[in-house]
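Two proteins, back to back. First:
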Amino acid sequence: MATNGRRLSTKRKFVADGVFYAELNELLNRELAEDGYAGVEVRTTPHRTEIIIRATRTQSVLGENGRRIRELTSVVQKRFEFADGAVELYAERVQNRGLCAQAQAESLKFKLLGGLAVRRACYGVVRFVMEASAKGCEVIVTGKLRGQRAKGMKFGDGYMIKTGHAGQVYTDTAVRHVLMRQGVVGIRVAIMLPHDPKGQMGPKIPLDDAVTILEPKEEIDPTAYLAAQQQQQQAAALAAPPIDMGMPPAQGMVDAGVPPATAAPPMEDPNVAAGF
């Protein structure tokens, strides 16, 4: 976000970035709700700020000849006081709609606005999410569903973690408010993502209670191992050339007919010579 040349403290910078993201997300959510808006990512570089809009229908986000994305760029630039060319908007397609909670919440919202029965709409969303290889799904709808009395309905399937670090990493949650004729209806969609070592369909981090049992290595018989080791030693000893420990006489002494020098006699022990 532009700061008009002022240097902010670290705390104020984080607060300003959070307010900027919240307001930008609300703007895009209202503007691109019918186009399958599924979130936004802000990347800040030294030269410019890049805003990546995730949606299920990117062609509608871009508009005809990129007209709509240019209009959104102009709105964001004027609202947050960016310099010319300091902000760029991009559209990115959601790889799997079934694993995106925001896309499913928007889908359920428009189903309810279209007059579809609550149970049928919710069960359809749960089935679609589970068919997209999700580990679990939960849909909660509260408000005036049938009569004047408000109530809540919960639909779920599969495995769902709600607490701890795994609940933050593996659970994708989205909340929407539907303005029905009889009142406001709240929607909450939670999806338990699958584990993906590549990090594309789900988190790379495995679950804490996931236990992988490896196949044991083949045990080696000690007797056979010792026999093979002895055979290797014997083969190495036979293959090695013989070592000559004697010193050959000098070539010049042999040619002159001088016999080689004999070894010096051992020295006599002085204790024995003294009679001890």
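And the second protein:
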Amino acid sequence: RASGAPGSRNIKVGAEVINKPNTNEEARSVRDALCKGLFANLFEWIVRQLNSALKATADAAAATASAGQGDTKLDNTAARFIGAVDVFGFESFGVNSLEQLCINYANERLQRLFVTAIFESQVSVYKKEGIAVPDIPFTDNAKVVALIDGPAAEPGILQILSEECVLGNSSDESFLDRVQQRFAVDKPNPHFARAKGRGMFNIKHFAAEVSYTVVGFVAKNKDPLPVDLSMLLKSSKVEVVAQLFTPPA
């Protein structure tokens, strides 16, 4: 029963399965993980439905073109396409947590895309064509993007957070220690700064400098949805809910 699922969890001990009650804090974590799981799976389900509908339309268009014009071929991937950019909006509050970091990171990526498309790529094309291009000053935020989400060889803040989440003795404090050690000592990043308050760090975004409070970072990034709860939702009598937790074929 879904109503009792957040209040307990099944633990396998050898061949025996034991049902253990959750504490209030654990139950709230399961509730939050369930809500986020439903939202994430619903979003992916909507995308799959749109892709399926668009592909069907493209296939029909390609068949019509081929039948009417002999060798005419239609590229199905380009025949029907919808591009959507969800602009979150930069956030800086009195207390900023993991949610604000993710939102501001999305804005940094959009800014990086804009810089690449408008300044770097277009200027390169003009120069190849022999068109004189005046020097246009712009803010390159590539180092900020790398600071938050770096490549495998140079892990950023999000990679360090993910590593902390798989450690048995991880905590918000150990996460902050690793971040400060890496970006303030070992490999100083000009866009990272130690915060004046305890349990905080600063990032100098292209829009503004923001102080992030690390309390809850590790727990929020984990949000594990119990396997038995996932199985329960997969067998839901509500068809859409069951589809959300059933891997696509």
